[in-house]
Amino acid sequence: RDLKPENIVLQPSEDRIIYKLIDLGYAKELDQGSVCTSFVGTLQYLAPELFASQKYTCTVDYWSFGTVVFECITGVRPFLPQSPPVQWHREVCKKSPDDICAYHDSNGEVRFSKTLFQPNYLCRTLQAYFEKWLRMILRWDPKSRGHGLVDNRPKCFTFLDTILNMKMIHILNVATNSELQVLSYPITEQTLMIEIQQMIEKETRIPIVEQDILLASGASPDPNKIATQCWNSPGDEDWVVFLFKKGEVIEPVSKRLYKPFSPRVQDIVKEPTIILTYQEMKKAWGEAVYYCSQQLLDYKRLILSQRASMLSLLRTNSEFVKLKNIMINEWEQLLSKKNYFKESLAFDIDHYKYYVSNGGHQSSDMFQSWLQSGEDIDNILSLKEKVDRLDQQAAALQTKIMELNKSPFSKITKNEKLEECERKSRELYQELRQAGKVAKENVKDHKQMVQVVVKCVITRDSSLHDLFTHLSKICSCKCELSQLEPEIKQQNRELAEVNQNLLSIQKQRQDNIWKLLNFTLKNNVINRQDSKSSSSSNEQASMLMSICGESSIETSKVVASSKDLNKKLGDIVDHVILEQEELFSMDWNFLSPKQENS
């Protein structure tokens, strides 16, 4: 088959693009003559055995297919694309089985390589997989080409299915000071997120506990679930996950490294008037287009990273505000309970003194414990300074977060200047390609392309400086939140403990009062029994007085005085019982410790 890029057409459908092969008239038996007459201009895509008039099989199509795929990835054919057929055959036959490309070095010597040409648009992981696949399909020996059959199917196509069906997650490493790096990892339906984090730790040296991985929504993936939560089906939109380091502020742009120029781009930037062949010129300009497109792509990804970081900050701040409000509410309620406790304690102390002064039972230990509890409760005020400090720090942090959320950078979606540089570089490259080799007569130098590249660099530096400054402020706020949140949680625990202690003291005093009341009631029963006995004695005394006369008057006075004292004591007990009944009829549920919302 005459398999080459010109014979592949694209047909858009509703939800995908269909690739079709055309011009299949060459799919026929070939002899030595037909090779030269039928494939003029397409020899670079033919398998080596066709040049030597050897017998061939379907593996000749494997070679052509591999050549086209290599060109799709890198933009050039794999083996000496500018060499004449005879020289090409003489040189390329020297390649080892694992070599997938050949080129001339600066001295004109032929060099072979087992890796893809740079730059290209594949991530590192896919590059490694495609390099392995190309080693299968670009073998010089037709018998070993394709690596044989597996289940009656060429192994190279089984492996290609594996590559095309592979799920990849891409993680933009924003944490390091090096150039913006995308970490790519293949996953399956069984790959756990913790496994991905282990690979990240190995590659970046960021411990798992310090990894702050964010989805575009600002949410963090669950480390105990499968890694597909970080994957989305391929589409027009760039799907990247973002890696930050917990508790670390993003370094300013001046300390960061950027993607360097490729050697060819560096040459034309240094010497815009350098004379190159048309092919070398096309390569240099193509790499300039790639450079501009990468700067734009990095900027877009960085915008997404700051947006995800801002959303994460707002998520964390929402929970932080709830904790802070709980602290303030707990403190205000504790103050109210403390004031009520002090008032009720003073009330109980006054009535206890009155009770004792009227002959009631006295307990010095109990009374001293009441006084001590009052002093202990006053120590609650020592918490006020810490609560106020945390409240002030939280309020200042809320102001910073609101300012960041209102910043123009939180709403930025694109950079028109960088987009213009990328578009202009593509236009210049297309003009060069369309003009063909005659362009050398019209294009004397590289000044136009160099101007675009330099403008792209200047725009990138200015834009990234502002963007990294904004991102640094977001990370700084997240760092402050992570430091304040544990303090507020600890303060809430302390307030809960104090509240529980206050309730315990209140219950203890109530228990003391009830015991005192019980003791008084028992004594009152005894006294009433004594009173009845005394009344009977009085009747007998009256009878004796009527018999004995005036000599018993003094005795009756003593009996009357005893009756009066007994009556007063009974009144005091009744008064205490009435007050206690009123006290315990009140709703004391507010003294129970308030449960924090989970």
From TrEMBL:
It is found in: Cytoplasm; Nucleus. GO terms for cellular component: IkappaB kinase complex; nucleus. One of its GO terms (biological process) is tumor necrosis factor-mediated signaling pathway. Keywords: ATP-binding, Coiled coil, Cytoplasm, Kinase, Nucleotide-binding, Nucleus, Phosphoprotein, Serine/threonine-protein kinase, Transferase. Residues 1-160 form the Protein kinase domain. Residues 380-438, 481-508 form a coiled coil. InterPro entries: IKBKB_SDD, IKBKB_SDD_sf, IKK, Kinase-like_dom_sf, Prot_kinase_dom. The keyword Lipid biosynthesis does not apply. It holds the Pfam family Pkinase. One of its GO terms (molecular function) is ATP binding. This is Inhibitor of nuclear factor kappa-B kinase-1. It comes from Mytilus galloprovincialis (Mediterranean mussel).
